[in-house]
Design a protein that fits this description.
single chain; 112 residues; mainly alpha; Cytochrome Bc1 Complex, Chain D, domain 2; 5 helices; binds heme C
Length: 112
């Protein structure tokens, strides 16, 4: 019995120096380059779309899986067709200058 009490400080010491488990940080969206991310933030797309999590809108990878052309994406963002996404609320038409939208669309096309 005495031996157990003698070991106790050692056990406590070991416990104290065991590194705490790493805090679980949500996985950063892995596939979004900084310049595209800045545009997605600027135009509020990030409020409803993520590369990894289903939010209000579909994840970017699911959109990319539809294999749209750049032109078609630009068209759909300006004039959404909710019928393409059963089970989702309709996306409101997004006003994004063509140049920036082209960057976003090119990234989406290259995503998958
Ligand atoms: C308020 C929420 C919301 C915001 C903000 C938003 N989206 Fe969406 N998006 C959706 C939803 C919901 C859908 C699926 C339904 C639909 O297409 O109408 C969608 C669908 C899409 C699609 C697929 C279209 C299709 O027909 O397959 C693209 C591309 C897209 N969004 C791009 C964007 C971009 C780029 C931005 C930022 C400029 C943006 N979205 C901002 C909610 C949003």
């Amino acid at each position: 019995m005495k031996k157990i009490f003698a070991l106790l400080p050692i056990v406590l010491l070991l416990a104290a120096f065991t590194p705490a488990p790493k805090p679980v940080t949500p996985a950063a969206d892995p596939v979004i380059p900084a310049d595209v991310q800045a545009l997605l933030d600027k135009y509020g797309c990030t409020a409803c779309h993520s590369a990894t999590r289903k939010l209000v809108g579909p994840v970017w990878t699911a959109v990319a899986a539809k294999k749209y052309s750049v032109k078609r994406i630009i068209q759909l963002v300006g004039k959404p067709e909710p019928a393409n996404w059963p089970g989702y609320p309709p996306m409101v038409a997004q006003k994004v200058p063509k140049e920036d939208l082209t960057k976003i669309a090119k990234w989406l096309v290259a995503l998958n």
